[in-house]
Design goal:
The protein has three helices and 13 strands, in the order αβββββββββαβββαβ. By secondary structure, the chain is α+β, with helices and mostly antiparallel strands. The longest helix has 18 residues.
Length: 241
């Protein structure tokens, strides 16, 4: 058997073991009791989890990890967590920030983000169309000045032919954003004024973007393998490249 097949078989066995370990009635509970993390109240369908303790009341996909009073959508690797800034239970949405991307701009090894934020988002969440695109470019050479002006490019703090610009609504990914000789990465932001300023990209990332979620069916005890995985990150913590 090839190494790839063996690895996939191992991941499948571990995933099925995780599913089998959950009691059939676990998903049918009313949910976790409300708990505080920082200044936010975490309540159903969300629930706080700990790496040291198992929490069976939290709905799959709605686990929240509280780190030093800061809530994160739970991922096994700390560097993958989306920080929760606010939660709007009445309309099924929450404001989150891909805060770890700010580390990309630190002086040591400064670079623009290399992965789209959407690679972290999967069922039961969706990126709201109320968000706006910001696009980062890593170019082999500086674009012509006419292109810089036309596209509204701003140079990033990393310099080295890296740029950023704003775009339309997040769903508009085919808006002529490609630039010759440049790799493009898309991030969603929720601009308070309704229009993002590209040069304030670090502030925009910090202020977050809007996610929406689908409410889990009441009393549903059915588990499927697909519900056990986020995009790019195996749940509950096996990373697949």
């Amino acid at each position: 058997m090839s190494p790839t097949c063996s690895r996939l078989l191992l991941l499948l066995c571990i995933s099925l073991s995780c599913i089998a370990a959950i009691k059939p009635g676990a998903q049918a509970q009313e949910g976790c009791l409300p708990e505080r993390c920082g200044n936010l109240t975490i309540s159903s369908p969300f629930g706080l989890v700990s790496v040291l303790e198992e929490n069976r009341c939290a709905q799959l996909g709605f686990q929240v990890h509280c780190t030093n009073g800061t809530p994160y959508l739970w991922y096994y690797e700390p560097g993958f967590g989306l920080q929760i800034l606010n939660m709007f239970y009445s309309n099924g949405s929450l404001l989150v920030a891909d805060i770890h991307k700010l580390g990309d701009f630190e002086s040591s090894g400064c670079h623009v983000p290399v992965t789209n934020t959407s690679s972290k988002i999967g069922h039961p969440f969706s990126i709201s169309n109320l968000n706006q695109n910001i696009i980062f470019y890593n170019c082999t050479k500086a674009p012509p000045l006419e292109t810089v002006r036309r596209a509204g490019l701003a140079e990033t703090v990393c310099r080295n032919n890296t740029f950023v610009r704003t775009g339309g609504h997040y769903s508009e990914r085919d808006g002529g954003y490609a630039l010759e000789g440049c790799n493009a990465i898309f991030l969603p932001v929720l601009a308070a004024s309704g229009e993002a300023n590209a040069s304030d990209y670090e502030g925009l990332i910090s202020n977050g973007f809007l996610l929406t979620w689908r409410q889990p069916p009441a009393g549903s005890g059915e588990l499927t393998l697909s519900s056990f995985f986020f995009k790019g990150v195996d749940y509950p913590g096996l990373y697949i490249t």
